[in-house]
Structures are given as C-alpha cells and as structure tokens.
C-alpha cells in the first residue's frame, strides 16, 4: 500500500489525475473504474484540462462506474449517470458506447448485476479503479455489514450514507434508500486502485482503513489485502495517521 499525503484538495486532485492520465498514456485502451461524489470532482476537472491541452485521448478508453442509485433514470439530475455526463464525459472525447453505469431503473435487477459483471470480465477487467470513501468506511456502496458482498448487487443504503448524501438533494426524504453497487470482489479484482479522501470528516475512516482490523464493518479495510493500492489524501483526511 502506498500513501500519498498532499497539502490540500487541489494537490490531491492533481496527483490523482496524473495517475489516471499516466494509465491512459501507457495503455490507451484502458478500462477505468470511476467514482462519483464530491471528492473526485477536482480530479475530473484536472483530467478535462489535461485532455484539452492535448496530453491524453479518451477515444479507446472504457469506463465502469462503481454504482448508481436504484430507481433514478439517466435524466434525473441526482443520478450518477447525469453526474458523470455533466462533470466529465461531455467535456472529453470518450465514446459513450464504452461508458458503463449500472441501470438504476432495470426491471430485473439480478440480471442487470450479472450483466454488469459479465461486461467487466469481457473487457478484460478493470485496469485502474478510482475510489472515494464514506465517513462510515464504505467503498462503492458497500456499506458496513457482517459480511463482504462479492459481486455487483443491490444494497440498502446505510443511515449515515443517506444523511451524508442528503446535501445533494432538496430534502433527506428524496435520497434513494437503495443503490446498485459493484461488490468487494469486483473492486478487489482491479489491477490498480487509487482511493481519494479529503476533509477531516474522512480521517477516522482513513485511519481504520489503513491501520484497523480487516472487517466488513469497515469495508475499505479490505484494501489492505490489495497488491497495488494508493491512498491519496489531503492533510485533513491524513490527520489521524501519525
Ligand atoms: C460514489 C461512491 C461512494 C463515494 C463516497 C464518498 O460513486 O462510490 O463510495 O465515493 O460516498 O463520497 P464523497 O466524495 O461525496 O464524500
């Protein structure tokens, strides 16, 4: 495990964007695993700049997002599809046929989940997975539990996650209570992983993920077992580490 501590959010975002850009330069047809939420916004902005400056090309890149709210369609402004399009995809030359995000409105959720796994496998697996972390230690929407859920699945969101994410909605009542998420095995199969965290409210989860017991009760702790994982933190998120 590598830990990169940066001074602030901007530095964290630049380091993360540089790692993603290097991945694409080294392998133009990379398969990227992507995250939403507030943390990676700066990284996406930086990648857009790197693209506009002519240093990277997304034409051959395939992407798989970690998760999507259950019940929200692509047009819904709170959906992760909408987020990805508005914050990233519309500014770069990605082929939208190579963009994959779980369908939150799928009628048959079980087959949607199986199909998502099949697509990842058929693309040769994820080369680089970008993760954020919940204040409760979740990755993707793998919430604290008594067991690790292996593959893409439907999940009941944790009370803490609903509270944390209510900042994006008009009212807490509007936050979906379920989501479709890649599982822990899906994430752990990625060849490389970077996890981004910023802010004091993430410091406890970061400390436990890095130094705590490996337990499904703090899902990010499983990353201790991954052979190529890098935590990219700002000063506040790293503040409990020493
Ligand atoms: C988002 C995701 C989540 C977020 C986490 C942190 O696709 O999978 O695990 O990364 O909830 O969210 P922010 O960055 O908003 O604090």
Automatic annotation (TrEMBL):
Pfam families documented for this protein: Glucosamine_iso
Keyword annotations: Carbohydrate metabolism, Hydrolase
Report the pathway entry: Amino-sugar metabolism; N-acetylneuraminate degradation; D-fructose 6-phosphate from N-acetylneuraminate: step 5/5
Q: Please give the InterPro entries that the UniProt record associates with this protein.
A: Glc/Gal-6P_isomerase, Glucosamine6P_isomerase, Glucosamine6P_isomerase_CS, NagB/RpiA_transferase-like
User: What's a single GO BP term from this record?
Assistant: N-acetylglucosamine catabolic process
- Give the HAMAP family listed for this entry: GlcN6P_deamin
Q: Which SUPFAM superfamilies match?
A: NagB/RpiA/CoA transferase-like
A single Gene Ontology molecular function, please?
identical protein binding
Q: Where would one find coiled-coil regions in this protein?
A: none
Would you tell me the Gene Ontology cellular component terms? cytoplasm
What the record says about family reads: Belongs to the glucosamine/galactosamine-6-phosphate isomerase family. NagB subfamily.
Name this protein carries in UniProt:
Glucosamine-6-phosphate deaminase
- Chain ranges of the Glucosamine/galactosamine-6-phosphate isomerase domain: 12-224
Reported EC number(s) for this entry are 3.5.99.6
Leading EC class? hydrolase
Entry annotation: catalytic residues: 67, 136, 138, 143
This chain's function reads: Catalyzes the reversible isomerization-deamination of glucosamine 6-phosphate (GlcN6P) to form fructose 6-phosphate (Fru6P) and ammonium ion.
Catalytic activity, as annotated: alpha-D-glucosamine 6-phosphate + H2O = beta-D-fructose 6-phosphate + NH4(+)
Naturally occurring in which organism (per UniProt)? Tepidibacter thalassicus DSM 15285
């Amino acid at each position: 495990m590598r830990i990169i501590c940066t001074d602030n959010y901007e530095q964290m975002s630049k380091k993360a964007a540089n790692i993603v850009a290097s991945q694409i330069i080294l392998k133009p047809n990379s398969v990227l695993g992507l995250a939403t939420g507030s943390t990676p916004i700066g990284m996406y902005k930086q990648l857009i700049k790197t693209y506009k400056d002519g240093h990277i090309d997304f034409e051959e890149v395939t992407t798989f997002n970690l998760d999507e709210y259950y019940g929200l369609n692509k047009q819904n402004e709170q959906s992760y599809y909408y987020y990805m399009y508005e914050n990233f995809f519309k500014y770069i030359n990605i082929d939208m046929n190579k963009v994959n995000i779980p369908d939150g409105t799928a009628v048959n959720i079980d087959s949607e989940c199986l199909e998502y796994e099949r697509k990842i496998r058929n693309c040769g697996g994820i080369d680089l997975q970008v993760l954020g972390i919940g204040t409760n230690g979740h990755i993707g929407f793998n919430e604290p539990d008594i067991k690790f859920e292996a593959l893409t699945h439907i999940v009941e969101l944790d009370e803490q996650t609903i509270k944390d994410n209510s900042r994006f909605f008009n009212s807490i009542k509007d936050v979906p209570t379920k989501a479709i998420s890649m599982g822990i095995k899906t994430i752990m199969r990625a060849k490389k992983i970077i996890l981004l965290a910023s802010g004091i409210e993430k410091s406890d989860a970061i400390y436990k993920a890095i130094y705590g017991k490996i337990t499904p009760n703090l899902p990010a702790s499983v990353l201790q077992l991954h052979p190529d994982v890098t935590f990219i933190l700002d000063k506040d998120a790293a503040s409990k580490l020493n």
